[in-house]
Structures are given as structure tokens and as C-alpha cells.
Amino acid sequence: MKKLIYIDSTMREESRTRRIAEPLVFELGKRYEIERIRLDEAGFPVVGSRILNDRNNGIVPEEYAEMSRRIAAADRIVIAAPFWDMSFPSALKVFFENMSLFHITFDSDNTHCYGLCKCEKVLYITTRGMNIHTGDPLEQATPYIRALSHLWGLGTLDVISAENLDYSTPEKIDKKISDAIAEGIALCKEF
Ligand SMILES: Cc1cc2nc3c(=O)[nH]c(=O)nc-3n(C[C@H](O)[C@H](O)[C@H](O)COP(=O)(O)O)c2cc1C
């Protein structure tokens, strides 16, 4: 069975982003073996001088190197992350930095960097409080994920989003979430 890594970067018990993501991951679980990585309270360290020095000496925690190898070997990646401060939670950036390892997710020769990942499709699921659409210059999560996909060689990116949720009635929120799930389920058939 092909492998899918689900990076759950939702941070609230009642997360609306997770309400959209879970049925989509369930649907994808019919065709993929799912590995879930839950970032809330996972405690990935900020990459600073100590970690860089270790890396320069060839030291990377085996647990992280192994996880990075699984990401590089995954056929699909799904990311669920709420829209925070015009992007995604920093826990996700910290996770990416810990997983972004030379000779595993990317490599370089004398002229350029290139991705080493097998993944051909990434699905990014989000909800936004304000009325900001995917592709709006104020929306800085999708451009970053697209750029990282380029570095790692992850293939195409699809985005499922629900917007203006902090300014919608509970009924409208439920409708936007069920619309996003329906759009996502249709997308998952080709994903
Ligand atoms: C720490 C934090 C930062 C947020 N920053 C933004 C923001 O910059 N722009 C925005 O539109 N909504 C922002 N929101 C609102 C969330 O995007 C919105 O409520 C979203 O639906 C939360 O997703 P969740 O239910 O999965 O946690 C923020 C919410 C939190 C908790």
C-alpha cells in the first residue's frame, strides 16, 4: 500500500481545521497507509546554534533522521494547519526545519539545490478567521508550503480552505466546513 504522511498542526481541541481534515484523511486511508504526526506539544526544538553545530559534525538525532527519511519516502503528504498571524503556526515551521535535512529531503551539487522526496502531491487544509482567500498576498502560508515543496521536490499542491470563520454565524461556519469537506472528498478521489 502507498504511504501518506498526515502532519496535523492544529492546536485546539475544537479545531475547525481538524474537522475538515479528519474525514479527508479517513477517505484517503482507504487507499493509503497513513502515518500521523501531531505537532501540538510534540516539542520539536527550535533549530539554533547547538543543532547547527551538531549537524556540521554529522550529528542528527536518529529519531528525526528516520522521520525525515519517512517523509522523503512518502507518496503523499497532507498538512492541516490553521491560519495564524497570516501564515501557519510556528510549530509547523520548526517541524519543517527539523525535517529539512541535507542528503535526505534535499541535496545539492556545484550549481543548484534539488529535492529528494518521492511525494507527487501535497494537500494543505486550513481555516482562516478573516476573509482572506488562498493566493491573496496577505496569505503567506500557501506560498511558503509551495516554496518548500520546490526545495524538497514534493510535486503539486492542492489547498482546501474555509474563510471568514471568525465573523460567521455558527450555522454559516458549519456550512463552510461541510462545503470544504465535500470539495476535499471530491479532490481526494484523484489525489
Ligand atoms: C494565535 C492565533 C492567530 C491567528 N491569526 C490569524 C490571522 O492572522 N488571520 C486570520 O484570518 N485569522 C487568524 N486567526 C483565526 C484563525 O485562523 C481561525 O479562527 C481558524 O479557524 C482557527 O482554526 P482552528 O479552529 O483549526 O484552530 C488566529 C487565531 C489564533 C488562535
What does this structure look like?
- The protein has helices spanning 16-28, 49-56, 62-73, 90-99, 141-152, 170-190; strands spanning 2-8, 32-38, 76-80, 106-108, 113-115, 121-127, 156-162.
- By secondary structure, the protein is of the alpha/beta class.
- The protein has a single domain (2-190), classed as Flavodoxin domain (Rossmann fold).
- The strands form two sheets. The chain has a five-stranded parallel beta sheet with strand order 2-1-3-6-7, with helices on both faces. It has a two-stranded antiparallel sheet with strand order 4-5.
- α1 packs parallel to α6 (170-190).
- The structure holds flavin mononucleotide.
- Flavin mononucleotide is lined by residues 10, 12, 15-18, 82-86, 127-130, 132, 165-166.
Short description:
40% of the residues lie in helices and 20% in strands.
CATH topology grouping: Rossmann fold
How many distinct folded domains? 1
Percent range for β-strand residues: 15-25%
The separation of the N and C termini measures: 15 Å
Bound molecules: flavin mononucleotide
Q: Structural class, judged by helices and strands?
A: alpha/beta
**Could you give the count of β-strands?**
7
The biggest beta sheet is recorded as:
5 strands, parallel
Shape: globular
**Total helix count?**
6
Secondary-structure map:
Layout (H helix, E strand, L loop, with lengths): L1 E7 L7 H13 L3 E7 L10 H8 L5 H12 L2 E5 L9 H10 L6 E3 L4 E3 L5 E7 L13 H12 L3 E7 L7 H21 L1
Parallel strand pairs: 1-2, 1-3, 3-6, 6-7
Antiparallel strand pairs: 4-5
